[in-house]
Specification:
462 residues, mainly alpha, 23 helices, 0% strand
Length: 462
């Protein structure tokens, strides 16, 4: 099909408006508007493609998301086993000896950022230190969305900026520049954003009133009375960190962690049948306090997210293979200046993160579309890299239906829409990035006004 701009824009806007409206304003699960958008695009495009062609595009898209579905299911199983055998309670118990309520948000953000820079993955960070910090923050009386926001901020600084991050390697490949140059460009905005974010969490620490209902002493007592705190409990989280550091694929990493956690449960006296049941249905605990720490997890709890991945990838497959996305931006090469090029790159990357629900595509598609514009205008491709990293790639962590947000959210047990207002780092990156490209104009404007003031003073004196 020769994609028509009007039809493509219509499908594009329908998908965008339906998903954003139903999720953000009516608080519906993301799989509902994604399913509606998928059906709409499918039947509208039947005028130009056969049913079989569109079905094949959908299947091709879903196949790309199978790996993510497996990871989600493994996360559900791992969290359930950690809650059953005491891995998570043990991590929280011993962490409470070092982390204190005062300044907890700033400390949490700093520690999470350090771990994410070492691991280079938001999912790996959330699955280890992130889940511990969230549970501990809940015990200290902090609202879960606030703590989850700090964890997401810390997790994504490494996901975007770490030399070990897969996203950095992807940016290097797509821009055809060395990874060291990519990192130099990314750190220009990363350092000030990190400092500002840390300061904001410090201010929030000072002004946030903690709930008096939660008590760390009560939690510690429940953990000691209910679990056998054995050193073997730390094997699974240590393996995750070690394998992530050596760039072992997440699916394999989590599979090994689940197996070790399952064996740990058996060694500590849980029956294989009960542990197998927990993997699917999640852990149940009789304590009335701190239910979010002890209850939940399991593969069944992940099924709504599997629905999101299925419909999101099927829709992305249709939008990409029918040429809908390319048709929308077919006149992109008419841009004539740097600032507009930079802003369009950010807009395009953000749009891809919203529409395709995939962080990688928010890097790949804008790079393919915009790289010739940068070449034609002789703009350093490092600028394109930073524009993408500061927009769609980092905002993917706070888009409720994006896979990059859903994975850590499933680990932390907090909805994306709930932690979104507190993920300061993700929110600040695009704002500061835009400010950077206009900073030169602001400086020139200030100098211009200074000259006018000086001339005015001279005239008044004369």
């Amino acid at each position: 099909m020769q994609s028509k701009f009007g039809l493509s824009l219509f499908i594009f806007l329908f998908t965008l408006s339906t998903t954003m409206t139903m999720v953000l304003f009516f608080h519906k699960p993301p799989y509902i508007p994604l399913f509606i958008s998928y059906l709409f695009a499918f039947f509208v495009l039947l005028k130009h493609f056969s049913f079989k062609e569109l079905a094949n595009m959908s299947i091709k898209g879903v196949k790309r998301g199978i790996n993510v579905m497996i990871i989600l299911l493994l996360i559900g199983a791992l969290v359930a086993l950690w809650k059953q055998n005491g891995t998570l309670p043990a991590l929280i118990y011993y962490s409470s000896k070092f982390l204190k309520p005062r300044g907890f948000l700033l400390t949490s953000f700093t520690i999470t950022s350090l771990i994410s820079m070492i691991l280079g993955t938001a999912v790996g960070t959330a699955s280890t230190i992130g889940i511990v910090i969230t549970g501990l923050g809940h015990a200290f009386g902090y609202p879960l969305p606030v703590v989850a926001g700090t964890v997401i901020s810390g997790s994504f600084i490494g996901d975007r900026t770490s030399p070990l991050a897969g996203n950095v390697a992807l940016l290097s490949d797509m821009s055809e520049i060395q990874q060291t140059n990519v990192l130099k460009s990314l750190f220009r905005t990363a350092i000030p954003v990190f400092i500002i974010t840390a300061f904001l969490y410090h201010l929030l620490d000072l002004h946030l009133k903690l709930s008096t209902q939660q008590n760390i002493n009560n939690l510690s007592a429940i953990i000691i009375n209910s679990y056998h705190l054995n050193p073997i409990l730390f094997l699974s989280p240590l393996i995750i960190i070690l394998l992530a550091f050596f760039r072992v694929p997440t699916k394999i990493n989590l599979s090994i962690a689940v197996l070790i956690s399952f064996l740990t449960s058996i060694i500590l006296g849980y029956s294989p049948l009960d542990s197998a049941k927990v993997i699917f249905t999640g852990n149940t605990f009789t304590a009335t306090e701190f239910k979010s720490i002890f209850n939940g997890g399991g593969m069944f709890s992940i099924l709504p997210m599997i629905g999101v991945v299925t419909f999101a990838t099927a829709l992305a497959g249709i939008l990409e293979d029918t040429g809908i996305i390319k048709a929308i931006f077919q006149n992109i090469d008419k841009i004539k200046n740097f600032k507009l090029t930079y802003l369009v790159t950010m807009f395009l990357s953000t749009l891809m993160a919203i529409i395709t629900c995939n962080q990688a595509l928010s890097v790949i598609l804008p790079s393919r579309i915009m790289i010739n514009v940068y070449r034609k205008l002789q703009i350093p491709k490092e600028e394109m890299v930073r524009a993408i990293a500061d927009s769609g790639m980092i905002l993917a962590g706070i888009i409720p239906w994006n896979l990059a947000a859903m994975l850590p959210a499933s680990v932390l047990g907090v909805k994306v829409t709930e932690y979104l207002p507190y993920a300061y780092l993700n929110l600040l990156f695009p704002l500061l990035s835009i400010a950077f490209i206009f900073a030169k104009d602001i400086k020139e404007l200030i100098k211009f006004y200074q000259k006018i003031i000086e001339k005015s003073k001279n005239l008044l004196q004369n």
